[in-house]
Amino acid sequence: MKTLRLILGDQLNQNHSWFNTVDENVIYIMAEMKQETDYVKHHIQKVVAFFMAMRHFKEQLTSKGHHFIYFTITHPENPQELKELITQAIEKNQIEKFEYLLPDEYRLDQQLRTICNELTIATSYYDTEHFYTTRLQLKEFFKGKKQLIMESFYRMMRKKHNIMMVNDQPEGGKWNFDHANRKKWKGQPTIPHERGFRKNVTDILKELEEAHVKTFGSIDPEQFSWPVTRADCLSVLNYFCNELLVHFGDYQDAMHEEQKFLFHSRLSFAMNAKILSPKEVINKVLGHYYDHKEDIHISQVEGFIRQILGWREYMRGIYWKEMPEYKTLNKLKNTNSLPDFYWTGNTKMNCLKHAIGQSLDAAYAHHIQRLMVIGNFSLLTQMHPDEVDQWYLGVYIDAIEWVEITNTRGMSQFADGGIVATKPYISSANYIHKMSNYCGNCHYSHTKKTGDDACPFNALYWNFLAEKRNHFKDNQRMKMMLSLLDKMEGKKLAELQKRAHEIIQNPEAY
Ligand code: FAD
Ligand code: SF4
After folding, report:
1. Alpha carbon distance 9, 423 (integer Å)
2. Best mutation site among 255, 256, 346, 349 for ligand 2, i.e. most ligand atoms within 8 A of its Cβ?
């Protein structure tokens, strides 16, 4: 039967069983489409990374004998839209069966279902063979439970996949070494330089211009530094194991003006595009750890495994359990708009200047910058979660809705009312000062609460608690914060709230 098989841009799994044999009757189809570049405005590096990765993937499989139809963004016959792409290819090639891999985005899942319903030939879908869990496994695991606690999901995953387990007990005697992962980085230990695989992307930039793809952020056309081929992704994984893993856990939450990546792996794009599988990343890291146990403490490794086996699979399960309603949630009823400096980095608040600035420069910020600087400010200034989501979905190299929205709307903005997080991730300047060197070089004083040079986060923090008090009054984990608020002298709180309102009304001035 002559079969057409669709591969989306984030389904670049070369080890998928589809490719075990070359079949003359199978044509694979891939396309760089305006439908995908335009559903949100993306960072230029994100678009370049996906298109380069797709082209490379196609080349690799073509060289093994597989047949491909591939439309570049400027190809004159590119329909730029999924339905037309599929129907046109079916007609032109006398296709008798259409097959696709289950998408990870709700939007594409719906679109493909509709297309298949309208087709008159046989259709079927397959798993991407990427994740440890199926879409609905988390839903089944938490059936009947009120709270969807990540930690219990993570422990089940450790046991089920026998990862860092000794006779049914967690290796090292503890499930979680989080308390050890809170060191501030002060210039030491040194961070070794990464092996180079810089690519010249001048040609693809020209194509994007020709196709009028609207993007933002900056890019160095001669030194594009994201790994997009499988070989480069594997070399980044090796580099992580050899050079960074040894300190990963310790400095997982640290932030520094001069270090964008610190000891983070930068593997999220490689995994989200499915160039690397979570299993091979975890197996490689564990293999390295067991070979170097005398040099690497378990806390460095457990912290990393938890992010991938725990958080990553958990967020995917939450997405498929809660969509499409999840996308509409705004439980704190926040309505403010993003200030212009989210697109420029031009603010006197040094932490935001650096976290946003590096996001625009590199399409990357690590977890704590996303959560405790940019996300924290967005929540404290009560920005609309739709706007916050759009920004995060556009700016980061690894942003695909299933993992972006659960982290942003859920973990960071508490707009889901506590499905993902048991309390909002908010802080005053204290936390940022503790984990970074941002405050030392800031226009504002992290210790001051009021006055022109007081850190805006301080007034915003108390104002948020005061304004959202009712929402959190029955939340046990907020008890301590709210009791401190209640003890605050009325005049003092009024002063803080006055300053907070001035900041919220005109964030550009700060
Ligand atoms: P490392 O710190 O080296 O971690 C290793 C891997 O663990 C990552 O590559 C990633 O695959 C996984 N991981 C870590 N934390 C999480 C998490 N919370 N959820 C899911 N996987 C995790 N991650 C994305 O992949 N795409 C997003 O769009 C995204 N948006 C985020 C938005 C906000 C507001 C927050 C707080 C976090 C977001 N994250 C997102 C999670 C995390 O910040 C990134 O995965 C991480 O910074 C990627 O860099 P890295 O590969 O160097 O990660
Ligand atoms: Fe950020 Fe406040 Fe510290 Fe400045 S003082 S870097 S605004 S937390």
Report:
1. 35
2. 349
β-strand partners of 255:
436
Instruction: Quote the ligand 1 centre to 316 CA distance (angstroms).
Output: 12
Spacing, Cα 24 to ligand 1 middle (Å): 40
- In angstroms, how far is CA 294 from the centroid of its own chain? 33
The burial class, CB within 10 Å (0-12 / 13-18 / 19+), for 432 is: buried
Closest residue CA from atom 8 of ligand 2 = 429
For 20, the token pair is 């075990």
- Report d(CA 274, CA 292) in Å as an integer: 28
Angle between helices 278-291 and 230-239 (to 10 degrees): 30
**Ligand 2 proximal residues by C-beta, below 6 Å:** 349-351, 429, 432-433, 438-439, 442, 444, 446, 455-457
pLDDT band at 22 (very low <50, low <70, confident <90, very high): very high
Residue 4: pLDDT band by 50, 70, 90 thresholds?
very high
312 lines ligand 1 (CB under 6 A): yes
pTM: predicted TM-score of the whole model, two decimal places: 0.97
Q: Do 62 and 143 reside in the same domain of the chain? A: no
**Is residue 195 very low, low, confident or very high in pLDDT (cuts 50, 70, 90)?**
low
- Mean predicted confidence (pLDDT) in 281-299: 97
Of the pLDDT bands very low, low, confident and very high (cuts 50, 70, 90), residue 182 is confident
Full residue range of the structural domain in which residue 194 is found: 137-322
pLDDT in tens, 72-83: 999 999 999 999
> What pLDDT score was predicted for residue 351?
98
Closest protein CA for atom 6 of ligand 2: 439
The Cα-based distances of 449 to 83, 427, 495, 506 in angstroms read 56, 13, 9, 18
Q: Is residue 132 part of a domain?
A: no
Task: Using the 3D structure, point to which of 322, 357, 390 is the last residue of a domain.
Answer: 322
Q: Do you find a cis peptide bond into 221, omega within 30 degrees of 0?
A: no
Which CATH number covers residue 338? 1.10.579.10
Burial of 411 (C-beta count, 10 Å sphere; 0-12/13-18/19+): buried
Name the burial class of residue 196, with classes exposed (0-12), middle (13-18) and buried (19+) by CB atoms within 10 angstroms of its CB.
exposed
pLDDT per residue over 321-349, tens digit each? 999 999 999 999 999 999 999 999 999 99
